[in-house]
Amino acid sequence: KLGRAQGVAIAAAMRHGLEVTEYSPKKVKQSVTGNGNASKEQVLKMLQHLLNFKDDPKYFDASDALAVAVCHHLQASSILLSGGNGKAKGWGDFISKNPGRLRK
Questions:
Q1: Which of 25, 36, 5, 10 is nearest to 68 (CA)?
Q2: Which of 4, 22, 27 lies closest to 93 in space, CA to CA?
Q3: Residue 29 CB: number of other CB atoms within 10 A?
Q4: What distance lies between CA 28 and its chain's CA centroid?
Q5: Backbone dihedral region of 36: left (phi > 0), alpha (psi from -120 to 50 degrees) or beta?
Q6: Maximum distance among all alpha carbons in the chain?
Q7: pLDDT (tens digit, 9 = 90+) per residue, 2-50?
Q8: How many angstroms separate the CA atoms of 90 and 19, rounded?
Q9: pTM, 2 dp
Q10: How far apart are CA 52 and CA 103, in angstroms?
Q11: When comparing pLDDT for 22 and 92, which is higher?
């Protein structure tokens, strides 16, 4: 069910011209902590250090979302500094570069 919800969210965003970028959990952890196998607690502690806040959430949903935002910021900064690498920048870019892979 989560995959279906994700697909609907991606399709809706693309339909409205919004850019969609996805990161694996390992990529998010690597970007935030330097360790792709970090625990949720380690990610939270690094976010607290990086963003200077003390709150310990009851659940990790908010810190997971914040970690994705920090990862996206770091990745976008890295791409801007390196000049890009020619890879697709999101689903819209992928589809425009691979029109034969689209099913209607």
A1: 25
A2: 22
A3: 22
A4: 7
A5: alpha
A6: 49
A7: 889 999 999 999 999 998 888 999 999 999 999 999 999 999 999 999 9
A8: 6
A9: 0.70
A10: 46
A11: 22
Beta-carbon-side half-sphere exposure of residue 11 (alpha carbons within 13 Å): 8
Q: Residues 33-62, buried b or exposed e (16+ Cβ, 10 A)?
A: beeeebeeeebbebbeeeeeeeeeeeeeee
Q: Are 68 and 29 in contact (CB under 8 A)?
A: no
Taking CA atoms, 37 is separated from 44, 51, 66, 98, in Å, by 14, 21, 18, 33
pLDDT for residue 101 is more than 80: no
Q: Please, are residues 71 and 46 in contact by the beta-carbon 8 Å criterion?
A: no
Predicted pLDDT of residue 93: 75
Amino acid 3 reads G
Contact indicator for 71, 23 with CB cutoff of 8 Å: yes
Q: What confidence score (pLDDT) does residue 84 get?
A: 55
Radius of gyration of the chain (CA): 16
Residue with tokens 């425009």: 96
